[in-house]
TrEMBL record:
Source taxonomy: Bacteria, Bacillati, Actinomycetota, Actinomycetes, Micrococcales
Name listed for the protein in its UniProt record: Alpha/beta hydrolase
Domain BD-FAE-like: 17-210
Transmembrane regions listed in the UniProt entry: none
Keywords assigned by UniProt, alphabetized: Hydrolase
The UniProt record lists the keyword Hydrolase: yes
Provenance organism: Arthrobacter echini
């Protein structure tokens, strides 16, 4: 299966690949895949390719998103601007291929989980801040795979050689941390399904657990599912952890935006 590439900017990292179900088949839903790698340029959208290939066979349309990361022009604010613009670019692809965007789930692994949850709440960001504005493509649910969902804790723990400080590039800017941290954005208006491996040594389970607890306390829809395996089992099709992710995506696919579809 050969995806179609779309650019949403001039930088080589400002691209997304669209994967479509077999010709003539209606999509079960649309999944925006946001890869992880602690926001560093060492890792790229290739991490999302096996996920997209598996999900397309299950009837989903997939939007495998790349973005600038720390080390290739990313970090604050570029990464946030890219994720917002990259998701909104999906509207163009949907119009060209007749995709219905009323069920659009963000699927993010590790740092991508952070960006997926952040993107789901960007409509409430203050005017003029990175990624703020009314989304062209509103997300209807998020599935976070071992997401870095508590930036304050991640910073205190110094996860992955102080990846949070490296990413946000402003350790003494509290406003920047507030705007970037999913913990300060609860409650979101969409469901967040957090799934985490019980043997994850890269992102502590507390990253998902603390977010879900805070979201539930604030009245949001949020669930935590723990699964066998390590950090990477969640992005390994065929694993028990991946099977749990697929189940959560099926649940998320039933969530729709009440607005008009892209073809209306």
């Amino acid at each position: 299966m050969t995806p179609q590439r779309y650019a949403y900017g001039d930088d080589p990292s400002q691209v997304a690949d669209l994967y479509l179900p077999p010709s003539g088949a209606a999509a079960r839903g649309v999944v925006v895949i946001i890869h992880g790698g602690y926001w560093r340029s060492t890792y790229g959208m290739e991490l999302g390719v096996p996920l997209a290939q598996d999900l397309v066979r299950r009837g989903y349309a997939c939007w495998n998103l790349e973005y600038r990361r720390a080390g290739n022009g990313g970090g604050w604010p570029a990464t946030f601007d890219d994720v917002a613009a990259g998701i909104d670019r999906l509207a163009v692809a949907a119009a060209e291929h007749g995709l219905d965007l009323r069920s659009t789930t963000a699927l993010g692994h590790s740092a991508g989980g952070h960006l997926a949850v952040w993107a789901a709440g960007r409509g409430s960001l203050p005017t003029g801040t990175p990624g703020a504005g009314v989304p062209v493509v509103p997300l209807t649910a998020v599935v976070s795979q071992a997401g870095v969902l508590n930036l304050g804790e991640a910073r205190e723990l110094g996860l992955s050689d102080d990846a949070v400080v490296n990413f946000l590039q402003g350790p003494e800017d509290p406003q920047r941390y507030r705007l970037a941290d999913p913990m300060t954005a609860v409650p979101l208006g969409v469901a967040v399904y957090a799934v985490h491996g019980r043997k994850d040594s890269s992102v502590p389970l507390s990253q998902s657990a603390s977010y879900v607890a805070a979201a539930q306390a604030a009245g949001a829809t949020a669930e935590l599912t723990t699964v066998p395996g390590d950090h990477f089992a969640l992005i390994t099709p065929g694993s028990r952890a991946w099977a749990a992710v697929v189940q959560l995506l099926e649940t998320a696919a039933d969530t729709t935006n009440p607005g008009p579809s892209s073809g209306d």
